[in-house]
Structure formats: C-alpha cells, structure tokens
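Give me structure tokens for this 187-residue protein.
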Amino acid sequence: MRRGVVLATVAVGASWLASQAAAQTPPEMFVDEGACPFECCTYGTWKASVDIPAYASSDKEAPTIGVIPAGANIEAVTGQVRTRGVPFLVTQAHDDAIPGERFLVYTYQGEGVFRIWRKGQWQEWELGFSPYGGTPGTRCEQVGGGCFGHLERELQSDWWVQVHLPDGGKAWVNGHAGFEGQDACGG
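Here you go.
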C-alpha cells in the first residue's frame, strides 16, 4: 500500500514538473486568437478589392468553399495571426534587457509593440519598428536613438480572418488578400 502511495506521488510530481517545463518553453508556432496585426486594424464591414478565395478553415491547405467577388462586402468577425518566433538580439541595455540577450518575437500589435516570449513568459514590448517598415521589419528605424536591438531575420506571419458572407455563410480568408475597410485610420 505504502509503495503505491509513493509511486502515485512520484507520478503526480513528475506530471506537474513536465507541465511546468512545457509552460517555460516557447511555442514553435503561436496562434494569436482575435489579433488584428497593424495600427488601426479593425474588423467589421470590408469590401473585396479583387476576387478572394474563401476557405472552410483557417488553413491554406483547407478546401476552398467559394470566391468572394471583387466589389462584394463581407463582415469580418475575428481573426488569428500565426507567427513563428524570431530571435531578437539586444545590442544595448534597455529596461532589464542586457546586451547579448536574445528573446523571441511573435505577433505585431501595432505602434512598434510586439508580443514576445522572454524569461519563460509572454510580454508586450515596444521594439521601435514595424514589420511593414522600409527595412523589411528587421530593425529599428528611429532616428536619434531609442533602438536597442534587431531581429535576426524577417518576421513572417499568416493572418486569417473569419468572415460572414453576403449569403449568410461563414468562411475564412487570408487577411492580406485585398480588402478595403481594414484600416480605421483610413489607409
């Protein structure tokens, strides 16, 4: 009996340790549910600028269930941004980050802010650049300082948007496929 209790205790402890280790490990692919990946990004009524394929799920390998014709209005309901972490190299001290430190950068939140994985947890940090900037989104473009590091390669992500179609159906579309109405700032 006592041996069974000890084994059960060891098994529970090992399971807890494994779950804690998993919690400290950054994901290879992060799916940021509900994200809208640029400044002034908004969901709502969008208009297709070109013919846009509609998918059964948020996967480019999913079956195409139709095409949203150019000029058609759809209702963008929510989205998800899928990003693989890219290392950011700290080149000068910033807050508690030290030169030589690396952390992983994931989803762009807008206004230079990114969701990052650092010291075993999710954080949001201003890195001083946009992935849509003139340096293909790998380094800070601030003039006169404020930059404290750079991405080791370009950040790449897929943006999938769930939409309600004019016929009442639901589908998923690539958020960068060509819609008007995504930018509440008028862009």
